[in-house]
């Protein structure tokens, strides 16, 4: 019996090379993403159990810090549509004046349940007293937004995002470039929700990588099958 020669044709070969390279590259990319997320989570967990250090110009995202200053209650922001245990509510961001630098920083005091009447906002009044506060610095991303009207007009303002680049524009002065998620130890702490430093775990990235490599293997098998099958008589 005469053996079939492997001859898939030029167009099929071009198709194969392009998509094989694409699938393989995407598999490698997902592995790299998984590895970077592992490093991020390890660093976050390490920072979360360390003692807080006094805030400074060198403080960075996920650092645990502390400082002393005064709450400034009038100009607070409620971040809308924050789901906690299946219940809709708000994250409350309150301005805080750091004593040493006189700089303003936004503090995430925690979560509040939304009232049945959404026009009736929950009570977030706070006395402008001096206090020591500690917590974790974060810089939330903008995320998916479905409207151009991200912040309401009247104080306390309702925001559709916790992104500092958006809500910082509501203040007349430059504020600290991070939000502090306050430890639940302040007298004004609300319900604490632990930070998730990433929305996708390393395991998911590795799972996606396996899918891309599987598609690569299937494509190779189909290319070989077609290359021999095409020349059968």
Task: Write a concise synopsis of the structure shown.
The chain is of the alpha/beta class. It contains three helices and eight strands.
Question: Overview of this structure, please?
Answer:
This protein is α/β, with parallel strands linked by helices and 233 residues long. The chain folds into 2 domains: 1-57 and 197-233; 63-182, no CATH class. Helices cover 30% and strands 26% of the residues. The chain is built from 3 helices and 8 strands. Strands 2-4-5-8-6 form a 5-stranded mixed β-barrel. Helix 1 runs antiparallel to helix 3 (202-229). The chain is elongated and about 90 Å long. The N and C termini lie close together (12 Å). The mean pLDDT is 87.
Structural class: alpha/beta
Secondary structure tally: strands: 8
| Termini Cα gap | 12 Å
Number of helices: 3
Fraction of residues in β-strands: 25-35%
Secondary-structure element string: HEEEEEEEHEH
Strand order of the largest sheet: 2-4-5-8-6
Gyration radius (Cα, Å) is 26 Å
Q: Which geometry do the CA atoms define?
A: elongated
Outline the secondary-structure elements:
Elements lengths: L9 H39 L4 E2 L9 E8 L5 E8 L2 E12 L5 E10 L16 E9 L18 E3 L4 H4 L7 E8 L19 H28 L4
Parallel strand pairs: 1-2, 3-7, 5-8
Antiparallel strand pairs: 2-4, 2-6, 3-4, 4-5, 6-8
Helix pairs in contact: 1-3
């Amino acid at each position: 019996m005469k053996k079939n020669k492997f001859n898939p044709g030029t167009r099929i070969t071009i198709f194969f090379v392009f998509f094989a390279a694409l699938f393989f590259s995407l598999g490698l990319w997902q592995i790299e993403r998984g590895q970077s997320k592992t490093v991020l989570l390890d660093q976050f967990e390490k920072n979360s159990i360390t003692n807080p250090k006094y805030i400074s110009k060198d403080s960075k995202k996920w650092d645990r810090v502390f400082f002393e200053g005064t709450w400034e209650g009038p100009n607070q922001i409620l971040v809308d549509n924050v789901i906690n245990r299946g219940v809709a509510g708000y994250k409350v961001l309150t301005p805080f004046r750091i004593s040493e630098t006189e700089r303003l920083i936004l503090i995430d005091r925690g979560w509040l349940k939304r009232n049945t009447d959404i026009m009736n906002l929950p009570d977030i009044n706070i006395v402008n007293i001096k206090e020591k506060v500690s917590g974790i610095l974060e810089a939330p991303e903008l995320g998916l937004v479905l409207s151009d009207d991200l912040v309401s007009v009247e104080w306390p303002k309702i925001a559709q995002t916790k992104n500092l680049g958006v809500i910082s524009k509501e203040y007349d002065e430059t504020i600290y470039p991070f939000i502090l998620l306050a430890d639940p130890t302040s007298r004004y702490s609300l319900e604490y929700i632990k930070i998730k430093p990433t929305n996708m775990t390393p395991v998911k990235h590795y799972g996606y990588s396996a899918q891309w490599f599987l598609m690569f293997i299937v494509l190779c098998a189909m290319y070989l099958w077609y290359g021999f099958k095409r020349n059968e008589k």
